[in-house]
Design a protein that fits this description.
By secondary structure, the protein is mainly α. The protein is 67% helix and 5% strand. The protein has a four-stranded mixed beta sheet with strand order 2-1-3-4, sandwiched between helices. Helix 2 crosses helix 10. It is elongated, with a radius of gyration of 29 Å. 34% of the residues are buried.
Length: 401
């Protein structure tokens, strides 16, 4: 059979698969809905958080108006003044919603009831300590049933009191010697954060490329497994086999159809990220396409191997899920890979998803050139060659059984 006939046969197979996909309305709608739901879910789970600078009074946080109780046990004017300053700062920054309580025990009951996330106590002796030139103490108790929230809110409380403490220090220094720059004495070193790329960036910009790669994996692997296993179970593959076309044309057609589907889902994710979450493409669009194509190629090889080895569709889907679900957590998509144990990091870096996400992230966010993502491209290319070299003979053998 000539090359042109093989190409035409491959396109016919791909068109048939895509037409079947289009006619399965529920499957088609689910396919389009899945990346949309995931992107909005992840986008609002990981909201844009700016940078904090306590020296300028700017505190960025993913949480706002967290209910916190305050108890002023000390009757001194300074204690009440500090409490009032704290309430004013908490209100103006929108970080905390402060409620007054008469005692710690009453406020503690509110934490247990779920109405408060923490309690601040200005204890007896606070004013006297400051008047005696001794360090005064503020006691903070957090609701530790949500460790992540309590950790963030506690850091916010510390920053607000640090601002008040710096203000008190400045006034003390001014009273001692007006010629001294109080800001220099209180904070001789000022730390400012500069973004790696120009302009305003968001944390979601670093997450979106990972979600694109994740959708490519999920769409490609599950679609391929379903397409091949379904035809095996329904017996329609026999009809294709008796047709005067080569097995390579069948494989190419299947791969082409899944490539189009995987790329379509990735572009849906990218479009939502840009339209709703402020994601920008700083790098080359062609490089981004190259990584997406290599990512799809590497996943297709794995999908064909799993599908060919599985006797029926359910087993194939289970094998695919066995590969997909761990990849989500160990390939630097949802969580930093550095928080995993070393041995698990090595496994994560053996997955093609890690390199697809890494390459997309560098191109889209960091404006990386070809040389800077060469390793990601090489690994994905090797993955594609090796897995397809194993998958194609296996698939041809399965066709001729």
């Amino acid at each position: 059979m000539s090359l042109s006939n093989n190409i035409k046969s491959s396109l016919d197979i791909a068109f048939k698969d895509l037409l079947y996909f289009w006619r399965m309305k529920m499957l088609f709608i689910t396919f389009l809905t899945l990346p949309i739901v995931l992107m909005f879910l992840f986008g609002f789970m990981f909201p844009t958080v700016g940078t904090s600078n306590i020296y300028s009074g700017k505190i960025a946080s993913p949480y706002s108006n967290i209910p916190i109780g305050i108890v002023v046990e000390d009757g001194g004017a300074t204690a009440h003044n500090v409490a009032d300053q704290f309430k004013q700062l908490a209100s103006s920054t929108g970080l905390l919603k402060i409620k007054d309580f008469s005692s710690f025990e009453v406020a503690r009951e509110k934490i247990v009831a779920g109405e408060l996330k923490g309690v601040i106590v200005v204890p007896n002796g606070f004013t006297e300590a400051l008047k005696s030139n001794r360090q005064a103490v503020i006691i903070v108790t957090m609701d530790d049933t949500s460790s992540q929230l309590s950790s963030v809110v506690y850091s916010q409380i510390l920053m607000l009191f640090k601002m008040i403490s710096s203000s008190i220090s400045a006034s003390i220094i001014k009273n001692v010697n007006e010629s001294i720059d109080a800001n220099f004495i209180v904070e001789p070193i000022n730390v400012e954060r500069r973004n790696l790329i120009a302009g305003t960036t968001s944390s979601f910009e670093f997450l979106a490329p990972g979600f694109m790669a994740l959708n490519i994996v999920m769409g490609t692997l599950s679609g391929l497994a379903a397409a091949i296993a379904r035809e095996k179970e329904q017996g329609t593959l026999d009809g294709i086999l008796v047709a005067p076309i080569s097995s390579y044309a069948i494989i190419t057609g299947k791969v082409l159809a899944q490539t189009i589907r995987g790329m379509a889902q990735a572009f849906i994710v990218l479009g939502i990220s840009m339209a709703f979450f402020g994601v920008k493409i700083y790098g080359s669009f062609l490089l981004m396409l190259l990584i997406m194509f290599l990512g799809v190629s590497s996943f297709i090889g794995i999908g064909i191997i799993a599908t060919t080895l599985a006797p029926e569709q359910e087993t194939a889907m289970t094998l695919i899920m066995l590969f997909q679900i761990p990849s989500m957590f160990i390939c630097n998509i949802l969580f930093p890979i550095e928080q995993l144990p070393k041995w698990l990091q090595y496994i994560g870096k053996m997955m093609p998803l890690y390199y697809a996400a890494d390459g997309l992230r560098k191109v889209i966010v960091l404006n990386a050139n070809f040389n800077q993502i060469a390793w990601d491209i090489i690994v994905l290319l090797l993955y594609s060659i090796i897995t397809l070299s194993i998958a194609i003979p296996l698939f041809r053998k399965a066709l001729t059984r």
